[in-house]
Every structure is written in structure tokens, then in C-alpha cells.
Design brief:
Distance between the termini: 46 Å
Strand content: 15-25%
Number of helices: 15
Strand order of the largest sheet: 12-13-5-14
Number of strands: 14
Shape: elongated
CATH topology of the largest domain: PTS-regulatory domain, PRD
Order of helices and strands: EEHEEHEHEHEEHHEEHEEEHEHHHHHHH
Number of domains: 4
Helix content: 40-55%
Length: 354
């Protein structure tokens, strides 16, 4: 029986005993995957970011990449905020990650004096509702630097070194310093659901631990396409559901429909140990008990040499190794042992003659 998946339930059709569900799932996902195209599109409200989709996204998921190329977090709001654009915008401003380089017109290093001059954009300061003083205080908290405000749009930073490389590195570090919002949350914008007309926030990163601390966020509905972030915050079952959902969404974006049971089987295989494992040689394929199954995937010589050196035994009980040596598979009709008594065969023969 199929387990519950997200909000709905997956249809629970019976599977015949001995059905090679793994092979069928691999075919059902792999064959349509060869037809996927490198299609890119823009996420609504975040026009500067091109979302990874199609085959690259599919590879990202099954390889269990630590960080997706384009992470997104969908932040739904509580009942007091979801119908109000003003409240939604206020929450988005608290989440929206603003770095020094986002509000600076220029960051100039003086190698002779060991000082860094930051010229801020008055317009960007007003848009993000921050001041030169608040930025200066955050820079001063950095080890090895003292910041002072010259005027409303100029900050001078004195670095405790004369090393050119260190001054340049410090300037880059200051440019990437988060001066407002949540570090690692990315740019946050307000969107509206077409059906319910409720407002929600979408951010271009996945620091959901900190986002959950913001008042007004609905903790039960927050979701990110960063599967590892889902695992760290909500556990392995949430990661399993995220894998299945992201696979389904990626395929459907390409106009491909794959039965959810195949996707759930893959998600189960990647998460059944309690940790997320990729499908490649460092994960599921590389950890198979069969020497021939590991060798058939990648690094053939390495696996065979190691198996010979350590005296490994292969019982040839799986699909891959059985196909390699031409052995009858213990699946499908090969899973059934049929014996007929001689007297019964004689009766069948007599009936056929008649």
C-alpha cells in the first residue's frame, strides 16, 4: 500500500507478488528524463533569478546536492496576516536579506592608508529603511575593523592591517555583510495566490530555521525546494515528501506525467536509512552488497580488484548481477517454482488427445 503523500493520498493499487517494482520505477523515470529539455523560466516576483528546471534540476535531486542552484522558500502567513498586503509586506521586509553591496554605490579600498570608503545610495537606504549608522555599527562588530559615519551616505572603515591581500579580502567581506533582514534568506517579495487571494512571501534562499522565528509566519505551511534544509529542520519524512514533490513538479513542468508511486519508491530508497543518500556511486549504487552490481555502475576495475583482495562473496541474488551472468532472476515468473505430479501430467495428456 502507498503511504500518505503531502496533503492528499496516493492511489493504492495492488502490486503482484514478484513484480520488479525497482526496474519499472527506474524505466518510468529514466525514459521520460531523456526527453527533457533545458528550459529555463523566471520565478514570479524575482525576475533577476533564472530558476533551474528540467534535466539539471532532476539531476540535482537524485544526486542529493547539498545546495540547489536556485533555492526558493515559500513562506505562508498566519490568519492575521495572509489577507493584508501591508502586513505581508512588513513580514517580507523583516525577512528580506540586504547586504552592504546592495545599498552601496561604491566600495573603495585605500591600500596606502588601510581604509575602506563606502558610499551608500540614499534611495536604496530609504527603500530598505536602514541608515548609515546601523550599517556602521554592524561593520564595527567585525573583528579587525572600526567603522565611522562621515555623513548620511558615507562610511569610512579602518582596517587593522596594511597587507594588500587582507585589505581586499576585508572589502569583499564587508560587501557581503548582511546589514538588514535574515542572513541566508535571500531577496523576499510578496506574492498572491490566484485561487484564495491570500498573500504569501517567496524568498530566493532557504534559511528556514531563522525565517520560522519571524512573527506572522505559518510554521505548518512553510516549504523550500532545498531538500537538505527540509531534512535538517523537519526531519527525514519531510525530506522524503520534498524529494517526491520536487521530482513530480520538475517532470510536470516539462509536460511529463509519471505515476507518483514510482517517484515515492525512489524517495523511499534515498531516505529509508534516516539520512538522504544520492543514487550514484557514493550512495545507493555504491553501497550495494553485490560486487557485480557495484562494478556494473561505475569504477568497474576498482570494485573487482577490491573484492578479490578482500575475498568478497557475491550470492547473485539481485537483478543487475543476474542479468550480467545470464542467471534466472528471482522476480516475475522466475519467482515461482512450479511442480506437477506425473499422474496429473498423464491426465492432461489424455484430455489433450481427446
Amino acid at each position: 500500500m502507498a503511504r500518505e503523500y503531502r496533503k492528499g493520498a496516493v492511489s493504492s493499487m495492488e502490486v503482484t507478488d514478484g513484480e520488479p517494482v525497482g526496474v519499472i520505477a527506474a524505466q518510468s523515470i529514466g525514459e521520460p528524463g531523456t526527453q527533457m529539455i533545458l528550459r529555463s523560466f523566471h520565478r514570479a516576483g524575482v525576475a533577476s533569478v533564472t530558476v533551474t528546471s528540467g534535466l539539471p534540476r532532476l539531476v540535482e535531486i537524485v544526486d542529493a546536492k547539498k545546495k540547489p542552484a536556485t533555492p526558493f522558500t515559500y513562506i505562508y502567513l498566519d490568519e492575521h496576516s495572509r489577507k493584508s498586503f501591508e502586513k505581508s509586506l512588513e513580514i517580507a521586509k523583516k525577512i528580506n536579506e540586504v547586504k552592504t553591496k546592495d545599498v552601496a554605490r561604491s566600495i573603495v579600498e585605500s591600500f596606502s592608508t588601510g581604509k575602506i570608503k563606502i558610499t551608500l545610495s540614499k534611495q536604496m537606504l530609504e527603500v530598505n529603511e536602514i541608515t548609515a549608522g546601523s550599517i556602521s555599527s554592524k561593520i564595527s562588530k567585525m573583528e579587525g575593523a572600526d567603522a565611522s559615519v562621515e555623513d548620511s551616505t558615507t562610511i569610512t572603515v579602518s582596517v587593522h592591517t596594511r597587507n594588500l591581500k587582507e585589505i581586499r579580502a576585508f572589502a569583499v567581506k564587508i560587501g557581503n555583510l548582511t546589514v538588514n533582514g535574515i542572513d541566508g534568506a535571500g531577496r523576499a517579495v510578496v506574492n498572491q495566490e490566484p485561487g484564495t487571494n491570500e498573500f504569501y512571501v517567496i524568498s530566493a534562499d532557504s534559511n528556514i530555521d531563522k525565517i520560522l522565528e519571524v512573527p506572522g509566519v505559518d510554521r505548518s505551511r512553510i516549504y523550500t525546494n532545498d531538500i537538505l534544509a527540509m531534512y535538517k529542520t523537519f526531519g527525514i519524512e519531510a525530506a522524503r515528501n520534498a524529494i517526491a514533490h520536487e521530482l513530480d513538479k520538475t517532470l510536470k513542468e516539462q509536460g511529463i506525467s509519471v505515476d507518483m508511486r514510482h517517484l515515492l519508491l525512489l524517495a523511499d530508497a534515498m531516505t529509508f536509512t534516516g539520512k538522504i543518500k544520492n543514487v550514484g556511486r557514493h550512495g545507493l549504487s555504491g553501497e550495494k552488497n553485490s560486487v557485480f552490481a557495484r562494478a556494473a555502475y561505475e569504477e568497474t576495475v576498482k570494485h573487482l580488484v577490491n573484492a578479490a583482495a578482500f575475498g568478497e562473496v557475491d550470492n547473485m541474488s539481485g537483478v543487475t548481477e543476474s542479468v550480467l551472468v545470464g542467471k534466472q532472476l528471482s522476480l516475475g515468473t522466475g519467482n515461482v517454482e512450479l511442480a506437477i505430479r506425473k499422474q496429473d501430467m498423464a491426465k492432461i495428456g489424455k484430455k489433450e488427445k481427446k
